[in-house]
Amino acid sequence: MDVMGDKATLFGTGRFVQPVGTEPTRDEMVDMGEAAEETRLALAAQSGDAEAASVLGAILLRRGDLDGAEPQLRAATAAGDRAAANNLGVLLHQRGYAEEAAGWWRIAAVAGSAAAAHALGRHHRERGDEPAAEYWLRQSAEQGHVLGAYALADLLEHRGDVGAEHWMRAAAERGHREAAYRLARALDRTTGHEDETAPDNAVVEAEQWYRQAAARGHQRAALHLGAILEKRGDLREAGRWYLTSAKDGEPQAACALGFLLRDAGDTESAAVWWLRAAQEGDGNAANALGALHAERGETQTAERWYRAALDAGDDNGAYNLGLLCAEQGRTAQAEQWYRRAAYAGHREAANALAILLLQGGDTTGAEPWFSKAAEAGSVDAAFNLGILYAGRGAEAEGLRWYERAAAAGHAEAALQVGIARLREGDEPEAERHLRCAAGGGSAEGAYRLAALLDARRPPEPAHELGETVQEKTECEEWYERAASQGHRRAQVRVGMLAAARGDVVEAARWYRTAAEAGSRNGAFNLGLLLAREGSEPEAAVWWTRAADAGHGRAALRLALVYARRGELAEGQKWADRAVALGPAEVAERAGRLRDALREELTA
């Protein structure tokens, strides 16, 4: 009796109860199925089925059972199976028999195997035979093999062949993520993605390829996609891609994510990502951590991270160490770090070194560093060179550097060029540069622009005090901008214009602001305004402040006030002061008043 047969029948009837927990799992069922399939293939191969032997050999090869796979693949290859010939080449290559592997790949490739042509092309390229490599890779690529297309593109790009883009695109379109990434990078380089004038379609296409590669898990593509989105202002999506790339181990993405979080106000989370990136050797992240600790006053920790940045090859570390030492008054060490960064080509370090040398009185040593920094593109260094040459009396050379800095948007340099053009009588050019200076935040630039416009406008009819006129001219708007930035002469001028419009309250506000900041003209004008309003005692207080600061008209006003009050000695004292201060017209009037008061006192 067949015991196994009876046992199976009895199990099927349910008369034998199966033990609990012996029911096979899904994985076990899959393994059982694969084992059954392998058994079937083995039996078929034994009976001379070449296709079965080829498939079985491929299964064993994938599993890593080279000894079991080799006889099956050789048998199938002998029967003319090209897939088996390709896989036999792979097996032999893994065993270290490269030349024998190439022979089988050649047989398979000639028979039409795209995979074998790709492998054979790679083999020839590794040995430096580029013509043969190109031939076989092209055979593979033209048959639609994605790896062959990518390898061919890589070979052609290495040579600088314009045909590389076609095959890189072909591989990318078939889903090769590295090809998609490299195609996007190539588009970035050819169109200048950072250039605002780059063709929109090319920029969009580069983004699409980055997106495709990133979606397939390419961490560098995710980093670049995040950078594109951040520049566009899509910060939320940029953060998602930075996070994806950072989690995959890309330190630059972790660093970029940290800056994004810092800008959003989450400094603590930013520090976590910077730390992760810095520990992976990202110098930029180490500098960011250093700056964070420096802001907190933790200078030792800051210095440690700056040194870590320097060790990572980031010259900003040396520059930041210089800044840290300079803030602490460690001038010699600051100079040492600035020099290290400057010699490495750090332009702002060269500028800082020059400033340090200039402050120490070493003008000769400072000049070449200013020049080096300016030639490297430092706008501040160009401006500083302008100051240096102008201070020596070399106005033309100084103006040249001012113009260079102004062209790069330096507001104070634009102011200096504007002033120079005014001296030359070139008002249109002066106005253009003064507008640049004022627009760039220069209070003096705004004031001088306002004065230039003010001189051109026709006189306006006078208004009674208290009669408010709402309309303001452009020059008054520039005066107000300068005044709001603390420019005292502008504050006085805004007060005068407000008074001319009849706006007493506004005029008094600006005069008082200027006077409290130390403007003697502001104090004098505030006194005039108060006197007209009947507050002569308070006016005298402001005139006293103005006169003490050297304002002759204020001293004359005080002399008149005290003379009217009958305080002749005090009046004579202020008349003497007015004579000394001038100007000539005031001195003449004050002299007559002083003589009259002297006669009264001696009568």
Relevant terms:
mainly alpha; 35 helices; 0% strand
Description:
This protein is mainly α and 603 residues long. Helices cover 79% and strands 0% of the residues. The chain contains 35 helices and no strands. It has helices at 3-13, 26-46, 50-63, 66-78, 82-95, 98-110, 114-126, 130-142, 146-159, 164-173, 177-191, 200-215, 219-232, 235-247, 251-263, 267-279, 283-295, 299-311, 316-327, 331-343, 347-359, 363-375, 379-391, 395-407, 411-424, 427-439, 443-456, 474-484, 488-501, 504-516, 520-532, 536-548, 552-565, 568-581, 584-602. The protein is rod-shaped. The termini are far apart.
Q: Secondary structure elements and their pairing?
A:
Blueprint: H1 3-13, H2 26-46, H3 50-63, H4 66-78, H5 82-95, H6 98-110, H7 114-126, H8 130-142, H9 146-159, H10 164-173, H11 177-191, H12 200-215, H13 219-232, H14 235-247, H15 251-263, H16 267-279, H17 283-295, H18 299-311, H19 316-327, H20 331-343, H21 347-359, H22 363-375, H23 379-391, H24 395-407, H25 411-424, H26 427-439, H27 443-456, H28 474-484, H29 488-501, H30 504-516, H31 520-532, H32 536-548, H33 552-565, H34 568-581, H35 584-602
Helix pairs in contact: 2-3, 3-4, 3-5, 4-5, 5-6, 6-7, 7-8, 7-9, 8-9, 9-10, 10-11, 11-12, 12-13, 13-14, 14-15, 15-16, 16-17, 17-18, 17-19, 18-19, 19-20, 20-21, 21-22, 22-23, 23-24, 24-25, 25-26, 26-27, 27-28, 28-29, 29-30, 30-31, 31-32, 32-33, 33-34, 33-35, 34-35
Q: Beta-strand level of the residues, as a percent range?
A: under 5%
Helix content: over 70%
Number of helices, counting only DSSP H or I runs of 4 residues or more: 35
Global mean pLDDT = 89
First-to-last CA distance:
161 Å
The global form is: rod-shaped
Biggest beta-sheet profile: none
Rg on CA atoms, Å: 42 Å
Low-confidence stretches: 1-21, 193-198
